[in-house]
Design brief:
The chain has one domain (42-214). The protein has 220 residues and is an alpha+beta fold. Helices cover 15% and strands 30% of the residues. The longest helix has 16 residues, at 137-152. A 7-stranded antiparallel sheet has the order 2-3-4-10-9-8-7. The chain has a two-stranded antiparallel sheet with strand order 1-11. It has helices spanning 28-32, 112-124, 137-152, and strands at 39-41, 49-56, 62-70, 86-93, 98-99, 106-107, 161-167, 170-179, 182-188, 193-200, 209-211.
Length: 220
Amino acid sequence: METTSRVETDGATGTGPAEGAPAAPRAVDGYLKAPFPWYGLDEAFTGPRWLMQVGTAADGTVQHGATGHGDEPSVKTDGSADKERFAAVITVGASPVRRSGDGTGVLDATTVASAAWLAGSGLLAYTWPSQLDHSLRDDWLDQQTEAAFALADDLGSAPWSTLSLPVDGVPVEFHYRESEFGWVLAGSAHEGVHIGAYGRGMSAYGLGFAVIKDIAGYDA
């Protein structure tokens, strides 16, 4: 996932939006449209917080999104990415099997596996083995993404283990796995959402999650 930054529109004087021009969209706008609460790391984390992206259905309904904590990750081939310390928290709105917006099909229910898949593929977006030739990365990414999907579909087997972490102060059991690229976890919260997370350079064992009281604070 690419990080999303605030978009600003300079006016004719260079001091603000041009008179009569529509306001530029803010990164937080998509988050504010979600019908579910957003989760991030709890107050024990005191580092930088930032917005990433939201995912929407064909009808524009927000289905999931991510918030970042720590260093903003990047894809680098010089090995410096291994020194980044970050954790991304994914919130997935819980929903049952339902008709698509255009009435032509059925949408799958969202589950903990949905959060695990989004977390696994999210970590891959910032992964690039230093020994891998640039021209081969797309093939490698396709293979690894398919593997992440298969892993998310079998949370009860290795390499998944369980890890208890607090969500709004209450212990919750998460599915957890590690790889050479970082870690991935997924579980369910208490507000009708599933939580996924991935990170690198920051231990998952000491994390806690909580409802974000002011999502606009991540867009500072």
